[in-house]
Prior knowledge:
Elements: H1 4-10, E1 20-23, H2 28-39, E2 44-50, H3 57-71, E3 74-79, H4 88-99, H5 110-122, H6 146-154, H7 172-188, H8 192-213, H9 215-218, H10 227-230, H11 235-245, E4 248-249, E5 255-256, H12 260-271, E6 276-279, E7 283-288, E8 291-294
Parallel strand pairs: 1-2, 2-3
Antiparallel strand pairs: 4-5, 6-7, 7-8
Amino acid sequence: MPDAHELLAQCHFPTTTATVDLAVSGGPDSLGLLLLALDAGLDVSVHHVNHHTRPSSDADAAHVATVCEALGVTFACHDVEIAPGGNFEARARAARRSAMPAGVLTGHTMDDLAETVLLNMLRGAGVDGLSPMVEDPTKPLRDVRRLVLHDYVDASPHVALHDETNDSSDYRRNRVRHELIAVMNDVAERDVVPVLARQAKLMHDERVWLDLLARGDDAMTLEEADCRIVRAWPVARQRRWLREQLRSADEGDGAHPPSADEVERALAVIAGTVVATEVSRGRRLSRRDQHLTLE
Length: 295
């Protein structure tokens, strides 16, 4: 049986007497988050999102409510509806985030971090995408391994739910989890999850340094910039500035940076190769008299 004290030493729970909000689906990761938060002496409030997308959705919500009653913690269920269509995972994540309180803690583990690194790599991410979750205060279990957490939950008197969609190869994260990482372990002849987590931390250190260097740049808006000055910068500095300036709001999922193609087209506008380009969310970046306009 995993020792709670050893697990807590790997966690990054806040030190506070205020009530802490937890996102609990009822699966072993989020249930482990709840049990460890209580072991850490935190006063917690549990938030469960019912997407109504599976036949067991209502039963899952009732199960989490029962566990919370047994543990003597506050429980809130948030009902959301997700329209049929593509990109279900992203829209479901956006719905969860918009329904729950800001800063709610989640049960993401080191394994989730490694999977996210690989998913972002497949999308062609840069330094920001290759250093997810590191020092994220909403991810207190980011240094805990998934299987160790599951053993800890299995040793408790509380039963974790199993979400059958986590077994489906229809979702890219599941294929990364069940197929890609297994192949990488075989090729590397080692467990690659800690390696990916360590690399993410190294990339995060680089990212923090770059953010410090770019602090003055971020304060300059597109409209304030003089293209003659910006195009004299190193291209990496130009890209980083454009990624911040061209961020766009998503469907409740936060602000997202532009794609690599959008950034390259924006660089062409700054360089004077073209006078305008289309970017995400129906916006148009144009240049006139060495100044930019985003409409």
